[in-house]
User: What shape does this take?
Amino acid sequence: QLMLAVLSIHANMKELRRQDSFVNIVGGLRLDETGSDLSIAMALASAFYESRIWVDSNGIPPAFIGEVGLGGEIRPVKQIESRISVAQRLGIS
Assistant: This one.
């Protein structure tokens, strides 16, 4: 609910307040992991705007890694190099 509030206020998605939202997390991802904030925000924005997230010419999606603050700012996360390395091993650019 907090992410929906931040997006509705700071990303001009005010209609999110009137919609039911459900986020399904697969593969054992911990929701208390702040590095997943940006990917969840992007998924919600993609659904809200009914727009696909860009993929490269090989069909590989980007990795969205970052914490989203209450003011809508994107904050860096710890161990970014290892996170990028894991994403690349999984075939995510």
